[in-house]
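**Folding the chain**
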Amino acid sequence: MKKNKRTNWREQIEQLFHELTTMHEQLGRKVTKSMLHIYTAKKKQPLELTPLIDLLVGLFEEGKRCGDIQTRHPSSLLALMAVQLYVGALQLWIFSHITEPLPTFLHETLHLFLCYIEKEGD
């Protein structure tokens, strides 16, 4: 992702989450559920999402620099919100009977979030 400079910040975010959700769908609900359980069961360490958050912060900063993102909220908060959407979509997919593909399920929610920060701002 860091080497892909041909696409803009939004396309990179959409591609990142598409690749992550496609990976989880290929692994299946049971394996993804086990992965989430392993990450969240560690009592000494929280879910290790720092590399993902750092990448997203940089992409949101790029969106602000080029004037696409209108919100004044810090990029770190936007990154955490995007991760919340991702983890929430994973949990809903794992524990419910959502029949649409996971990448499609997350894409719709992510699209609304990105449109909001681009146009509505604060």
About this structure: The helical segments are 9-27, 29-41, 50-65, 75-95, 102-119. The mean pLDDT is 86. The radius of gyration is 15 Å.
